[in-house]
Amino acid sequence: MTDDTRTTAEQARGVRYARELEGHLGWLDTFSGTALGVLATASGIYTYLGVSSLLDENGAMSVFAAIAYSVAVSVGIFVFWSYMMRLFPAVRSARARIGLMLAMGAGSLAIVAMSSWLNAAALAGSAAVEQHLAKTVQDYQTSLERAHEVALTGQSLERDVARVRQSFEDLSEQEAAGSLSGLAGRGAVFRVLRQKSAELSGLEGQISAQTPLVEAAFTEGNAILSRMRALTVEPGPVEARSVEFSEQAVRLAGLITQLRQLTVAPLVERAAQDLAASVVLPELDGGTTEGRADQAATISSVLEVLAQRATTLERAAQAVQALQPTTDVTYTPISSADAVILYARNFVPSWAGAIAIDLLPAVLVFILAITQSAIRGGREGAAIEDTLTLAELRAAMAAMRDVEKTMHEHDAPAAKPRPLPQQAAE
């Protein structure tokens, strides 16, 4: 077999392959436009649902605006992908294909911006809003528990105050027995010790009175949190649930603020500062000069101990106040579209479906481009007569016969004119 014969056989196979692909494309073209129209219509429907969730009013004008926008999106998607499906497979130069690729990329971004995120809002909008409610509940729970923890830490200062009070009471009992100044009875030293013991006892009572308030606020806050959790999973429209959720959030924020104000650390710090600074020294009542000197020395020692204990209390209160405060939590109602964007990571399947329904025709464009390239490759190098189909050959032969007939009539001698009747009579 010669090279020319082998080349001719390969060209014939390429032509048959190209004709087979053209037959498949001809069959696919019968419903490709319909399929593209269905995809564009479906995207428009979900776009309408997404736009409706963004509009505050439910009047006729709002409905008309949503319909107009969704129709515009459907028409835009259909026209854009129709252009791409016709033009991209037809171009041959690399420059033209790169240009159309850039145009397709820009158009795809525009479609995502004007349609896909609204489709995602329609697919997962309610779930995204519920996700926002659940996250807000978690934030409020963290803030409530932190406020309760700080308040309980402040309440634990009651034990420090009680310990200091008890130490002064023990010292006063020792003074009453004459173990400190050497003068038994309830003299000047005894009265100083009892004075500070009474102050600390009053502070201890104030701290103790705060404990029921802290526990009541924490219990009520947990009850509100339970109701807010129930609202996140209850059936029904999420918009109605969001209204009640907002009311509960306002109540809970007030309780958290109340818990912050119930902490006794600032009170203990001020009391510790006043403990050593405000001492009313009684008149020394010793019977002798030596006894009064002993009382004065004992009172000085008591004041030193008092200053040390006051510093200890002050540092403990400052340590409580230095604890990390609760973070301010504020519930902000958001629309379903904003919620889908804010919690996009939690709704990847919905985003994928919303984008796929708009960008699926891009796959068809690349399929057509590959097929058209294969068709051109199969026909490359083949003679024109090898690429003609039977219908095209019949049409060409009919055209040739028409041309030959026209040329024959043009070359034939013109017929003599028939004589008029008068001429014939003559």
TrEMBL record:
Domain of life: Bacteria
Keyword annotations from UniProtKB, A to Z: Membrane, Transmembrane, Transmembrane helix
Segments crossing the lipid bilayer: 26-49, 61-84, 96-118, 351-370
Keyword Membrane: yes
Segments of skewed composition (Basic and acidic residues): 404-413
Region ranges (Disordered): 404-426
Keyword NAD recorded: no
The protein, known as: DUF4407 domain-containing protein
Native species: Tateyamaria armeniaca
